[in-house]
User: Fold this.
Amino acid sequence: MAESDNSQEKTEQPTPKKLREARQQGQVPRSRELNSMAIMIAGAAGLMLLGSFMIGELMQMMNHGFSIGRSELLDSASLLDRFADAVVNALLLLTPFLLLMTAVALFTPLMLGGWSFSGQALAFKTDRLNPLSGLKRIFGPKGLMELVKALAKFLVVSVISIAWLWSQSESFLNLGREPFLQAMTHAAWLYGMSFLVISSALVLIAAIDVPFQLWDHSQKLKMTLQEVRDEMKETEGRPEVKSKVRQLQQEMAQRRMMEDVPSADVIITNPTHYAVALKYRPGEMAAPVVVAMGRDRVALRIREIGQEHGVEIFEAPPLARALHAHARIGEPIPAQLYYAVAQVLAFVFQMQRVRRYGGEEPPRPDGDMDPFQPVEGEPR
Assistant:
C-alpha cells in the first residue's frame, strides 16, 4: 500500500514531451515582477534620455498654442486646425518613448519562458467562473505568496523612495528659485532620476521572484513514475503492439521471400533443418544471390515450393549451414563460399542440360565438402 501511494507522488522531472505539451497549452514560466521591473526601468531611462527634448518641444507647443491672434479666435475652423496640429505634434513627440516601451513589453518575456501563443489558453473554461475556485486561488498558497510579494514590494519601494527623496529634498525645494525653463528641465531630470532609482528597487523583487517562478513551474509539471512509464509506452509503443507489428513484418517478408523461390536455380539443404535458395544468371550477376533461406518450418516450406516448381534440391549440410550463417537474403553470397557454390551450380546447370538434351549425368559433388576450402586436387 505504501509503495502504491509513493508511486502516485509527483517526484519525476517533466519529460520533453510534457514540457512541449505544456507550452502548447500556454503553460510557461512567467514573472510579473520581471515585466514590471523592465518596463519601469526602461520608462525611467527613456524619460531621462528624452526628457530635455520633450520638455523643450512641449514649451514650443505651449507658446505656439497660446499665441493666437484675434482673427483666429473668431474663426472656429482655425481653432480646430490648431487643435489637430497640437494633437499630431504631441503624438509625434511621444512616439519614440512609446516605441521604447512597446519594445520592452514585447521582448521582456524572452528573458523567461519566451513568447507563447496558445489558443487553448484563451479557450472558455467553466471552472474559471466557479467562485470556490477563485477563493481557493486567493486564500491558497499561491494567494498567500502573492500577498507576501506585494507587502515586500511595498516595503522595499517605500524605504528606497523615502531615502532618495530625503537625500534630494534640497534640489526639489530649489526648483522654485530657478528660471522657468531651467526649472522645467531640472525638474524633468530629477523626476526621471527619482523614477529610475525607485524602479531599481524592483530588481531585488524580480531577483527573488524569477527563481521562484521557475521552481513553481517545474513543480506543477512534475510527473508520477506511472505517468513517465505510460508516456514511454505511448512514445515507443506498447510491447504487445510492437511484437504484433514485428510478427506482421516477418510474415510479409516471408511471403515475399516465398514468392521468389520459384525463380531460384538450386535449393541447398541440411537436409531438414536448413534450406537456402540461390539464383544465378551468368552475364547478369557477378555472383549468385540468395533469394530465400530459413530454418525448420520455413526450410520445409522452401523445399515444398521448390519441388512444386521443379527447382533442383541439393543436400550439402555444411554448405547450407555456412550460407545460412554468413549470407543475407537479396544479397550476393560471401566470396569465401564462391568455390563450393560454383561446384553445386555447375552440377545443377549440367543436369538441366542433360534432362533437356540427353547425355551422360555429370559426377555429383560431395555434399559433405568443406564450404570454405576447395576440394582436394582442385586449384586454389
Remarks:
- Residues 180-221 form the longest helix (42 residues).
